[in-house]
Specification:
The complex is a heterodimer of chains A (109) and B (114). Chain A has 109 residues and is an all-beta fold. Chain A contains no helices and ten strands. In chain A, 0% of the residues lie in helices and 49% in strands. The chains are: A mainly beta (109), B mainly beta (114).
Chain lengths: 109, 114
Amino acid sequence: DQQVKQNSPSLSVQEGRISILNCDYTNSMFDYFLWYKKYPAEGPTFLISISSIKDKNEDGRFTVFLNKSAKHLSLHIVPSQPGDSAVYFCAASSNFGNEKLTFGTGTRL
Amino acid sequence: EPEVTQTPSHQVTQMGQEVILRCVPISNHLYFYWYRQILGQKVEFLVSFYNNEISEKSEIFDDQFSVERPDGSNFTLKIRSTKLEDSAMYFCASNPGRGYNEQFFGPGTRLTVL
């Protein structure tokens, strides 16, 4: 059951450059998307989210883009910093609120 | 800043034994969740809990699993008879309530079943 997919298991980026992490989903019922950052032996930390009524949301160095017709979202980190090294998970939920999150497999940056 | 806490950080148990994983969600949050992550795999939903009852559970959450909010602050996950395949990181999460989709996760409990 691969409703949320992150096809790149790892990504290497130089400090100061842009990091682009991608995520695809298949379930049309998903209406809310989130990115979490996870360090080893810690829980996922919420980074940024976007509702399906938007196509972009920005918070500091982090921007999430949503292409609903392509069922694709991406997280841009500009500029990338050494402390950004972690595993990034894309997650999705229906917009009924408070619903379970369905996670992707993660991308190690 | 308020945070979700979980105890113990690491639990080692023998196959067939019962374990209880404990969580203290963020105060005033209304929705509570358990997820797990088997090593090298994605984070998987187990169960959600609201208003003192289960609101949704996954197929993983079979009769061996149960959840409880015994005293208004703790939120527990019990596994009655552990199996080797229950070895995983177990994460508790909480959510403020209606209108919020973000869930806030605890640091996790690593469960090792021998």
